[in-house]
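Name: Putative cytoplasmic protein
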Amino acid sequence: MSISSKFFLYEKGFSTAFGFECAVMLRAAWEMADMVEVLPFSEGEINEAVASNPAVEHLYVYLLDGSDIRQQFDGLIRTYTGRDRMVLGANEIYLLCHESIRDSKLATSLGKLKVSLTARNWKTISKLYEITRE
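Structure predicted for Putative cytoplasmic protein:
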């Protein structure tokens, strides 16, 4: 069974169980480890973002569906001039916001990508990583 077939089965199961459609993104334990270990932002960069607004989350990971989006992603980055930062990983996009993600033009621009993705804040990613290690 192909990966896309597996995703279809999980998405169909989700739709049946919850009554609405949603893209399903799966990651193996080793993929979670890689995602956490290659965090592209330094502690200093993260601390600077947190200092901008300590009341909100600042670090997010968008899980991708396996599509090759390098060209689309590069186009988004070229046109962005704000303080937020975004880096394309192996099968995810890392986003560091200086204010709320709700106010991030960079986060909003991800809607232009022709790909399924889902966002999780870094606390959730870290917790999922810890679960996979148990």
